Amino acid sequence: MLPQTPPPGPTRPGFWRSPLRGPWLTSVFGLVLLVGIALMFVSGLVSYAAYNPDLAVGNDKTPDKGLLGFYLFSWPTRPYWLYRLNQGVHVTLGVTLIPVLLAKLWSVVPKLFSWPPVRSVSHALERLSLLMLVGGALFEFVTGVLNVQLHYLFPGSFYTLHFYGAWVFIGGFVVHVAFRVPTVAKSLRGRSWRTELRTPAVRTEPEPPDPTGLVTPNPAAPTMSRRGALGMVGAGSLALLVVTAGQSIGGSLRKTALLAPHGQEPGKGPNGFQINKTAANVGIRDRDVGPDWRLTVRGNGRETVLDRAQLMALPRHLSALPIACVEGWSTDDQTWDGVRLSELAALVGIDRDAPGVFVESAQRGGSFASAHLRDNQVRDPLSLLAVRVNGADLSRDHGHPARIIVPANPGVHNTKWVTRLTFGAPS
């Protein structure tokens, strides 16, 4: 049996001496996270749906998701900036909330060392939810930031681990919120925001003793007011917003995206916009995209093979579309020139009600060498097999001789170095 008296160290109530800790400050941070994390979770689920994982095995990065895929829906193509907006919000908000998350963890650190560790069944459930909440939050934020900064696949697939980690985290989050909503509401009503924001450090006093154990019985002299703590956290979040948001907003603000390594322009000219994977990275060779390159179009039991000159001779159209990446960066609208996917389907006798298409690339390494597109994506008049951009031929890194560009599509599904289109391919 555990002793009732806590051992020396962080389990002792007097070990944590900051006079700022208490239900009110914790509730303020918690309220911000409640709104922010809910929006992040929803935008994350929407982002996963944009991959059309229920369309085909090749698109499904979490094949064992089971009931967790209950919400999936057919991803639309309009508005054409939908994925750019959703993923920009998801990544930018995640980075911006980091100071708030750290502040919230600081405010409740005494609870992590409460003694005895378990006092009842309800307390055990609360502690379990806290473990899921803290562990899940740290895992999601750390893996998300690593992927954004380094295009880093945490041991295994980032998509799989981030997806399941989100569900574990949100489970703990929901349970924790259910336990804490009454306390949060009472704490926020119990103290005046105006008074707290006007109180300097010299007049800052601990909150009254509370059953949560956050208020220290042995407070140290304050070195900062609660106003100062909130201001410091807010300034940190604002700074991260400023150096991150430009990667999604674009224009002149793109240069402010200091924390977006994929958000910088790789040069000037018609092809001077972001590149996530280069031809060299994925093993593209000269002969793969040189004069011997061919495009094979299959479907309806027929097959047509085109060289580049024949492809260029087909009727071409223009589409002004951005590229938006799961890492949060996106380009401004680029003017793409190419053949509509629906008209390529017509080459093999599919004149109306074009089905989905399986797109294959010449790339030999890396991920997303192929992708399935839905029928609505094929039929959209903005969906092209592009051969030029901004009035110039595609550069090799942008997919020369031909690449897919589809409105509201995740960037990795806008396949580059296309060699084969199979319309009506089974999933």
UniProtKB/TrEMBL annotation:
<dbReference type="Pfam" id="PF00174">
    <property type="entry name" value="Oxidored_molyb"/>
</dbReference>
<keyword id="KW-0812">Transmembrane</keyword>
<keyword id="KW-1133">Transmembrane helix</keyword>
<dbReference type="InterPro" id="IPR036374">
    <property type="entry name" value="OxRdtase_Mopterin-bd_sf"/>
</dbReference>
<feature type="domain" description="Oxidoreductase molybdopterin-binding">
    <location>
        <begin position="292"/>
        <end position="423"/>
    </location>
</feature>
<keyword id="KW-0472">Membrane</keyword>
<feature type="transmembrane region" description="Helical">
    <location>
        <begin position="158"/>
        <end position="179"/>
    </location>
</feature>
<dbReference type="InterPro" id="IPR000572">
    <property type="entry name" value="OxRdtase_Mopterin-bd_dom"/>
</dbReference>
<feature type="transmembrane region" description="Helical">
    <location>
        <begin position="24"/>
        <end position="51"/>
    </location>
</feature>
<feature type="transmembrane region" description="Helical">
    <location>
        <begin position="130"/>
        <end position="152"/>
    </location>
</feature>
<protein>
    <recommendedName>
        <fullName>Oxidoreductase molybdopterin-binding domain-containing protein</fullName>
    </recommendedName>
</protein>
<feature type="transmembrane region" description="Helical">
    <location>
        <begin position="229"/>
        <end position="249"/>
    </location>
</feature>
